[in-house]
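Q: Got one fold?
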Amino acid sequence: MFDTVNRVFRSHVREDFSKDSAMNQRNCRIFDFRVAIAGLLVWTMGLSSCAFNKTFFPTEKQGTAVLVTNPRAQEFTLTADDGTHISHLLLKPEGESLAAIFFLHGSGGRALNWLSSAEVLVNRGFTVLMMDYRGFGSSEGTASHRTALHDAKHALAWLGEREEKIILFGHSYGGQLAIKLAHGDQDLVTALVTEGAFTSHNDIATWTTPAWARPFTKLAVRSPWKAKDLIGAINVPKLVVHSVDDEMVPFWMGEKLFQLAAEPKQFWQTTGPHTCSINRYGDEYVQRIKDLLGEPSDAALVKY
């Protein structure tokens, strides 16, 4: 892209300035330099924007919703203020529920992609609500940061009318949403759990671009909100989970969120792929969530 832009502009410059003029040659060099910088900025912004959107909101066709065969699962629709129908999945445990968990999954897929993770919680006594972002599963519309937040707030309000104890559980991109929701609706939230969450949209976009382009990406990509700026004002109990092997969101981002979080808080360092700890450490994971609802147990919680 840079070479193409440079060749086009150089051709126009040579038409307007005489090659025999020393002054014009100097002007050509200055103009070429400016074109190079402009081309670099355009290329970098395109790179960071494409990489960011592809990571969090893929545009490829997602297909139709898969039939839910779990007899305890209920599919239903909530209508947003703009009339868009948003698909949700509610799973209830056998017997009395310990609390309701609003499971905000990572983007780039349907809620059903995280069904096995949700069932870890349901099988151990929790009610779980999941939401399909716009354009995914049976949800209408097109996903964006603004609509994801709007729809999540709507779902939280719906759940708050039916449940006394609500835990926000955010995976990856869902961690950003969970932190934003907890910050704005602490009266509805009992506890907050994040796994593989990043510090801000700008930070993760910058981290995913080549090192030489990161200063430009940092300027080009804006964060609609920053988890690292909000988590310090959230007073409900928090559990920050992050794997040292996370290949998508660096471990230091989880550490940073924990360091900035207000008490009460706990940090759990795990191993394994991105946002897979709930499936790898089911019993321990659930025990740590239970601890957020009351006094911490004597379990080996990593806190620093």
